[in-house]
């Protein structure tokens, strides 16, 4: 199973169903498993349906393809009963029906807010200025993944 560790150090467990006999996830079910994972996280953490967050392990897990690759790689590694992902930078949107309107009106504001949070997060990691990404690059990354949920 996957363990998702939140900023509050809560640990959520995700066990996908209908896997292949070898334990791997099939290409045909990857979108279903991705939606199942997102819904489980939102339900367990009591987040609104429009909440935005990132799942991180050496790279950002932001879609069903990344989930499929990570899961099948982990199964091949045979390294224990669970694999831990960190949940970072969450923004809880109040209601789904206002989400589309907010998405259109505040895309730039949200990208900047998330970039600031990222800046704070990387600052806590004691990464010096030389190792930091250019802020515009960070904003571009968030504009491409900000509304994946």
Describe, in plain words, how this protein is organized in 3D.
With 149 residues, this protein is α+β, with helices and mostly antiparallel strands. The chain has one domain. It contains four helices and five strands, in the order ββαββαβαα. Strands 2-1-5-3-4 form a five-stranded mixed sheet. Strand 1 and strand 2 form a beta hairpin. The longest helix has 29 residues. It is globular and about 45 Å long. It starts with a strand and ends with a helix. The C terminus is likely disordered.
Q: Write down the Rg.
A: 16 Å
Spatial strand sequence of the major β-sheet = 2-1-5-3-4
**Beta-strand content:** 15-25%
Number of domains: 1
Shape: globular
Low-confidence stretches: 91-99, 123-136, 138-149
Helix content: 40-55%
Q: What's the count of strands?
A: 5
Distance between the termini: 21 Å
How many helices does DSSP assign? 4
Mean pLDDT: 66
Q: Helix and strand succession?
A: EEHEEHEHH
Question: Which class best fits the helix and strand makeup?
Answer: alpha+beta
Main beta sheet strand tally, sense and closure: 5 strands, mixed
Features:
disordered C terminus; 149 residues; alpha+beta; 16% strand
């Amino acid at each position: 199973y996957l363990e998702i560790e939140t900023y509050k150090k809560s640990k959520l467990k995700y066990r996908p169903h209908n896997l292949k006999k070898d334990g791997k996830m099939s290409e045909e079910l990857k979108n279903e498993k991705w939606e199942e994972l997102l819904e489980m996280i939102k339900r367990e953490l009591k987040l609104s349906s429009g909440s935005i967050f990132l799942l991180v392990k050496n790279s950002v897990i932001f879609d069903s393809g990344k989930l499929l690759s990570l899961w099948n790689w982990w199964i091949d590694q045979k390294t224990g009963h669970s694999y831990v992902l960190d949940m970072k930078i969450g923004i809880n949107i109040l209601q789904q029906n206002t989400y589309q309107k907010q998405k259109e009106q505040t895309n730039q504001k949200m990208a900047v807010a998330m970039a600031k949070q990222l800046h704070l997060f990387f600052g806590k990691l004691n990464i010096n200025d030389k190792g930091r990404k250019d802020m515009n690059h960070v904003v571009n990354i968030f504009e491409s993944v900000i509304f994946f949920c």
